[in-house]
């Protein structure tokens, strides 16, 4: 059966690239991009785009009916660092947008929902290394509280109303096409741009802060893979741990120095250090690998080579 997909939050770091991959897979006109603001040029010209406020259920429904949408990928959210500055706004956006989309699925306007969670569901009392799927989860950020609540709403709608909602706990996502939108792992994107443009970076996290990370190509592949899995393979309906690599600012800087030997990194931790300290250093994603065959492709070395090659030719 033909899928018509609506991506909400398509102009952001992940939405921009996910929308393009979905258009290649399902056909340009079958993937409707939407956001409260316009996105990158490639996305804007390659297929339909609608302005949608994810907190406004009626507008989403109008677009769903206009295009006969069967699946929604909900990516609109306020990220960790920004939500600490605007807690009420972060909570309202992250919760209301999700409940709107889950309700549309419950009311049978759409068949399937994708919504990303985050490693921010874990907190200072969770095990730091190889953090398991199920463990103590006491998040200490507004963003983390919204993500863990969202996970339980997803599970509730699945159990009570049969809603086919699927979710991944993304680690920090690293990309070179689109800038990140206010997260705690943004330094790991910025570092590549700064290496090429200025040869140095002042990092807002301390040098030995280890966090789980993933290249955008792998994040997009995982997202499409879980959405295409058979319903019976998706056994966890809160959200799956998802992992590829973990590193510290010092380690990513050493990798960059292999290509730019004069690259310099200095450290000036700010309020984001406390958020990073509350998160896992590495994640155990064996359930995702077992249930629906997740396999990552990129590690720190291959990701760095790919990003620097792409950024150098883009210049
Ligand atoms: P982003 O901030 O880059 O993009 C979010 C998009 O949502 C933006 O384009 C913004 O304009 C849009 N938006 C904001 N308010 C809106 C509203 N009311 N209606 C419609 N659109 C609205 O974020 P991202 O990094 O692309 O993240 C996408 C999803 O992945 C989020 O749920 C985020 O929590 C999750 N996630 C991201 C990362 C990461 O490293 N990027 C890690 C873990 C989880």
Q: What is the CATH top level name of the largest domain?
A: Alpha Beta
Based on Cα principal axes, name the global outline. globular
Bound molecules: nicotinamide-adenine-dinucleotide
Give the name of the CATH architecture of the largest domain: 3-Layer(aba) Sandwich
Helix percent reads 40-55%
What's the overall average pLDDT, rounded? Answer: 97
Gyration radius (Cα, Å) is: 19 Å
Structural class: alpha/beta
**Residue fraction in strands:** 15-25%
Given as residue ranges, the uncertain stretches (5+ residues, pLDDT < 50) are: none
Helix count equals 12
The profile of the biggest β sheet is: 6 strands, parallel
N-C termini distance: 42 Å
Read across the widest sheet, the strand sequence of neighbours is: 3-2-1-4-5-7
The beta-strand count equals 14
> What is the string of helix and strand elements?
EHEHEHEHHEEHEEEHEEHEEHEHHH
Note the topology:
Layout: E1 5-8, H1 13-26, E2 31-35, H2 41-46, E3 49-51, H3 57-67, E4 71-74, H4 80-85, H5 87-106, E5 112-114, E6 117-118, H6 142-161, E7 164-166, E8 168-170, E9 172-174, H7 187-197, E10 200-203, E11 211-215, H8 216-228, E12 240-241, E13 245-247, H9 249-257, E14 264-267, H10 272-277, H11 286-292, H12 300-314
Helix pairs in contact: 1-8, 5-6, 7-9
Question: Can you tell me about this structure?
Answer:
- The chain is an alpha/beta fold and 315 residues long.
- It folds into two domains: 5-172 and 214-241, NAD(P)-binding Rossmann-like Domain (Rossmann fold, 3-Layer(aba) Sandwich), CATH 3.40.50; 175-213 and 245-282 and 297-314, UDP-galactose 4-epimerase, domain 1, CATH 3.90.25.
- Helix content is 44%, strand content 15%.
- It has twelve helices and 14 strands.
- It has helices spanning 13-26, 41-46, 57-67, 80-85, 87-106, 142-161, 187-197, 216-228, 249-257, 272-277, 286-292, 300-314, and strands at 5-8, 31-35, 49-51, 71-74, 112-114, 117-118, 164-166, 168-170, 172-174, 200-203, 211-215, 240-241, 245-247, 264-267.
- A six-stranded parallel β-sheet has the order 3-2-1-4-5-7, with helices on both faces. A three-stranded parallel β-sheet has the order 6-8-12. Strands 9-11-13 form a three-stranded mixed β-sheet.
- β1, α1 and β2 form a beta-alpha-beta unit.
- α7 runs parallel beside α9 (249-257).
- The protein is globular, with a radius of gyration of 19 Å.
- The N and C termini lie far apart (42 Å).
- It binds nicotinamide-adenine-dinucleotide (NAD).
- Nicotinamide-adenine-dinucleotide binds next to α1 and β9.
- Nicotinamide-adenine-dinucleotide binds at residues 8-9, 11-15, 35-37, 52-55, 75-77, 79, 93, 116, 118, 170, 172-173, 180-183, 185.
């Amino acid at each position: 059966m033909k899928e018509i997909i609506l991506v909400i939050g398509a102009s952001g770091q992940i939405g921009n690239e996910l929308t393009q991959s979905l258009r290649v897979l399902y056909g340009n006109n079958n993937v409707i991009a939407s956001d409260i603001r316009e996105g990158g040029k490639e996305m804007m010209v390659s297929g339909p785009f609608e302005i949608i406020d994810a907190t406004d259920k009626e507008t989403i429904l109008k677009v769903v009916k206009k295009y006969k949408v069967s699946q929604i990928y909900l990516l609109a959210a306020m990220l960790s660092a920004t939500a600490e500055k605007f807690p009420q706004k972060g909570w309202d956006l992250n919760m209301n947008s999700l409940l709107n989309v889950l309700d549309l699925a419950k009311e049978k306007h759409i068949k399937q929902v994708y919504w990303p969670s985050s490693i921010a569901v874990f907190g200072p009392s969770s095990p730091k290394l190889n953090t398991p799927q199920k463990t103590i989860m006491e998040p200490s950020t507004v963003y983390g509280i919204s993500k863990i609540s969202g996970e339980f709403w997803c599970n509730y709608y699945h159990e009570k109303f049969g809603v086919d909602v699927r979710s991944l706990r993304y680690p920090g996502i690293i990309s070179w096409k689109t800038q990140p939108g206010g997260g705690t792992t943004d330094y790991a994107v910025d570092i590549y741009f700064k290496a090429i443009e200025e040869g140095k970076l002042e990092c807002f996290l301390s040098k030995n802060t280890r966090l789980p990370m993933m290249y955008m190509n792998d994040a997009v592949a995982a997202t499409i893979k879980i959405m295409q899995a058979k319903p019976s393979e998706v056994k966890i309906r809160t959200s799956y741990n998802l992992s590829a690599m973990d590193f510290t600012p010092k380690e990513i800087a050493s990798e960059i120095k292999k290509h730019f030997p004069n690259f310099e990194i200095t450290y000036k931790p700010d309020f984001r250090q406390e958020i990073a300290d509350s998160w896992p250093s590495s994640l155990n994603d064996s359930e995702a690998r077992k249930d629906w065959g997740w396999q990552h492709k990129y590690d720190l070395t291959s990701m760095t080579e790919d990003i620097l090659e792409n950024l150098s030719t883009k210049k």
